[in-house]
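Example record

One chain of 180 residues, shown exactly as stored in the release files.
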Amino acid sequence: MAGTSSLIVAGLTATALATIGYLGHQAAVNVPPELRRPAAAVAVRKAFPRHDSRTVLPARSGVGERVVYSLGADRVWLVDEGGKVRRTFGVSPSTVDPAPGSYRVTSRSGEVTGSDGVPVEHVVRFATVGDTAIGFSAALDGSAPVLDPRERTGGIRETRADGAAMWKFATIGRTVVVVP
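Predicted structure tokens for this chain:
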């Protein structure tokens, strides 16, 4: 009798597995055409993006509260004392780059004319290369700089919103870490 019930359980299990396999096959075969195209996969990736590696805080970029500026990525990170990124944004570089290293914010100006002749606001200076002051700023008209490699400019441009965030965060003495 025990053998009969084992055969019944085995038969029911086999039938259930066969049914699941059949239904799975039917589901795979009957995928609507719009979901078979690569565009559907792209739409799904856009709706649920993975972590963007371009916005990840660079390794070996210091500790504590600081501004991190990547020369290669043309990106800035505002990092709190616990190491959490509070804001990250792209910037337009100047024609003169500071060497990688650790600096401190040395001066700030609310509104001046940039070294390229454009009125700028929220200027946060942290380095000097030769006679060129290096710092972050936002053009009052929202424009990106037009770089002329023959001109020595030190203004690293950001949007006005990013410039306001930088101004609030990067006070005199704040550490600025420049990475390659």
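Notes: Confidence is low (pLDDT under 50) at residues 33-51.
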